[in-house]
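User: Please predict the structure of the protein below. I'd like the answer in structure-token form so I can feed it into my own downstream comparison script.

Assistant: Understood. Taking the following sequence of 141 residues as input:
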Amino acid sequence: MKYVVLVSHGTFSIGLQSVLEMLAGGKREDVKSIGLEDGMDADTFSAKFKEIISPFTQEDEVILLGDIVGGSPLTNAVNELSSAGFLGKTVVFGGMNLAMALTAVLMKDSMDTTELKIQLLEEGKNAMKEFVIEDHDDEDI
């Protein structure tokens, strides 16, 4: 199975998983999330992350999406995946957004890893646009 694992500071990843469930058809066993809560130390986060990935088998693959490249949640998750022997079967992205995560969930099983990586970056970039409001009455918006 290919898993999409979301990590973040605070509850961003948990909220993103909730939105993905709304948009992608309900509770999904292939999507996991964990946030580094306020006051949580890195060891506690790592232990909780290790628990989340404990059902993964050596045949599984991981798409790891984090909120910030170099942030504690992402680096600790990578360290735990490495310790569990999954690093060679993991692709890692920072700067996750809804478009990127939704694409990962919906397309992970229909694309090879190289195509998926390109698509995730493209979707993530394309999702960021200025919402331009033209001069209209407030009722027209």
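That's the full token string. The CA atoms of residues 9 and 36 lie 5 Å apart.
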